[in-house]
Amino acid sequence: MRDALRIAHRTTALLLALAAAVGATVTGASAEPGAGKDVPDVAVIGTGGTISGVSTNRVSFQDYRSGQLAISKMVDELRPEVDGLADVTTEQFGNKGSGSYTIADYRRLTASVDAALKKNDAVVVTTGTDTMEEFAYWLDLTVRSDKPVVLTGSMRPWTVIGTDAPANLYNAIKLAASRKTTCYGTVVMLNDQIQAAREVRKTNALRMDTFDSGPTGELGVIDQDNIRLHRAPARVQKCGRSSWDTPFDLDTIDDGPLPKVEIAYSYQDAGGEAITAFAGGGADGIVTAGTGAGGISPAMSAARTEAVKKGVLFASTTRTGSGAVYGSSTATGVIGAEDLTPQKARLLLLLSLAATEDEKQIREWFSTLGTAQFVTR
Question: Active site residue: 12, 50, 152, 181, which one?
Answer without folding.
Answer: 50
